[in-house]
Automatic annotation (TrEMBL):
The keyword Zinc does not apply. Belongs to the class-V pyridoxal-phosphate-dependent aminotransferase family. Csd subfamily. This is Cysteine desulfurase. It comes from Paeniglutamicibacter kerguelensis. It is an enzyme of class 2 (transferase).
């Protein structure tokens, strides 16, 4: 199976089932809530996931027993806190197939992507010395993104192009939202210095052909930057097998706390990049005239770090590993197929994204003829069903699909088939409620 489409299809994978999911759901107290008199059905994990009790208990335990500044003290609490912090890095880096020195802690994926672009801008301004010149951009250089991108993997590149004089180009999508791979080879040229693209569309749930795009970038010597926000929580991901140079991901989408994310980068690249934030804890020596910086990852971790959040994220990763990412992916594929098939059968519903059979995670974006997505979302919320409405921080993609906004239902390992059936039954009632003819 190629790294581009890691959805599990092997018969030997023991898929999760509703009985096991019901046991897992007991680990998520928020799922016991009622919303507007109905049991909560949470189908907005693409925005943020719910957390098992062990995650926030881990953060509480850290503060109660180990709270101290890391890398800064010789007393016992500081040593213990540092051990917890670096063990979290080991756990999470192993989860994505990276080495420990290749994982930089950030506040979220947006910061991780901005870290790259600001570092490249600093290199373009002459900072970082000889080693950083490989990241310098200027007139005549090109940055390539795709029309699928979340704003977090588009606007930072727009800003970098504006600061350096480089040209920003993009690979378009077709009328179904599939990347125009037939045009990619023309767009990715000898002038391309960076290719940044999403692993899984946050709107469509479609899985990008990573290996094909990486090969095109390698052919012209371009660096590759992968947005892994929607893949790391839902699919088995190995950055070495994907062969990307950088990958950003966010903890709160993978059962972890808010305020923590990560940037993977090849060690030789991170060590050559000039830092983004500067201050304490990321230096080797400082005079009144200049400073020398530590190797990665610490050269990018200035100031007081996200210690409890890193510990919480490592706990979330351990939870996912115990369940098994192959099994998580297989279950969500099952739920996604049930959801997409059911939505396509409802009159007046347009399902956005690739045709049936394309590789997708358990995400379903749709529109209802004659009803605004915000009204659809409020109608579903009245029945206790939480979904996302709007442009999902992907306005260019929505424009390419001919809509301003959509309703998006997104699943995770705590959703059941009954959740999907409740969604389908509710969506089937939308047109009648708003008096729209089908």
């Amino acid at each position: 199976m190629s790294s581009a489409s890691p959805q599990p299809q092997d018969a030997h994978i023991e898929r999760l089932d509703d009985l096991e999911i019901s046991r897992l759901r007991a680990d998520f107290p928020i799922l016991e809530r009622s919303i507007n008199g109905s049991a909560l059905i949470y189908l907005d994990s693409g925005a943020t996931s719910q957390k098992p009790s062990c995650v926030y208990e881990a953060e509480q335990h850290y503060y109660e027993s180990f709270n101290a500044a890391v890398h800064r003290g010789a007393h016992s609490l500081a040593v213990e806190a540092t051990d917890i912090f670096e063990q979290a890095r080991s756990t999470v880096s192993n989860f994505i197939g990276a080495n420990e020195n290749e994982l930089v802690w950030t506040s979220n994926a947006t910061e991780a992507l901005n870290l790259i672009t600001y570092s490249f801008a600093n290199a373009s301004a002459g900072l970082g010395g000889e080693a950083a010149k490989r990241f310098a951009l200027g007139e005549g250089d090109e940055i390539v993104v795709t029309e699928l991108e979340h704003h977090a993997n588009l606007i930072p590149w727009q800003e970098l192009a504006a600061r350096t004089g480089a040209t920003l180009k993009y690979i378009p999508v077709d009328e179904h939202g599939a990347l125009r791979m037939d045009l990619a080879e023309q767009i990715i040229s000898a002038r391309t210095r960076v290719l940044a693209f999403t692993h899984v569309s946050n709107v469509l749930g479609s899985i990008t052909d990573v290996s094909a795009l990486v090969a095109l970038a390698r052919n012209v010597g371009a660096l590759t930057v992968l947005d892994g926000c929607q893949s790391v929580p839902h699919l088995p991901v190995d950055v070495k097998k994907l062969d990307v140079d950088f990958m950003a991901f966010s903890g709160h989408k993978m059962l972890g706390p808010t305020g923590i994310g990560g940037l993977y980068g090849r060690s030789e690249l991170l060590d050559a990049m000039p830092p983004f934030l500067t201050g304490g804890s990321m230096i080797t020596s400082v005079t009144m005239e200049k400073a020398e910086f530590l190797p990665a990852p610490m050269r990018f971790e200035a100031g007081t770090q996200r210690i409890s959040q890193a510990h919480g994220l490592a706990t979330a990763v351990s939870y996912l590993e115990e369940v098994g990412m192959d099994r998580v992916a297989a279950w969500e594929e099952h739920l996604g197929e049930r959801m997409l098939t059911g939505l396509r059968q409802i009159p007046g519903i347009r399902v956005l994204g690739p045709e049936a059979g394309a590789a997708r995670i358990g995400t379903a974006p749709f529109t209802v003829d004659g009803v605004h997505p915000h009204d659809v979302g409020q109608f579903l919320d009245a029945r206790g069903i939480a979904v996302r409405v709007g442009h999902h921080c992907a306005q260019p993609l929505h424009r390419a699909l001919g809509v301003n906004a959509s309703t998006r239902a997104s699943t995770y390992l705590y959703n059941t088939t009954s959740d999907i059936d409740a969604l389908l039954n509710a969506v089937a009632d939308v047109c009648g409620y708003f008096g729209v003819s089908k």
